[in-house]
Amino acid sequence: MTSPTATKRVCFQLVVRPELLDEYIARHTPVWPEMLAEIAAAGRRNYSLFLGDGGRLIGYYETDDDEAAQAYLANSEVAARWEAEMGRFFVGLDGRPDQAATPLTEIFNLHDQLTAAQAPVTASENESTAS
Known about the structure:
single chain; 131 residues; alpha+beta; Alpha-Beta Plaits; 4-stranded antiparallel β-sheet; 4 strands; elongated; L-rhamnose mutarotase; Dimeric_a/b-barrel; Rham/fucose_mutarotase
């Protein structure tokens, strides 16, 4: 597990309506500059979207405080306009895409596990493993 103060990795899933895939892709090539600025101002970074078969969309970003980032974007006029335009692209979505996407649970991260494996063993850990 990561510490509560560590960067949080967030992954989510949505489904784009197959008949609107070309338009959805075009809308992201490029995204409005003011929306890009809002995403950054919200504290989201290393943000990517990946498109799979059947319109499956996987999003990923990193943030130090996802609740604060969500609140910032929920109150942003620019994000409200963007999300109002994007809502029609998704299947089975209730609400704004940025607020209603299905989050995925992280079960493995290479960096975290390598770091944990290289952490020095403390005296109390040595005593418990020696029993």
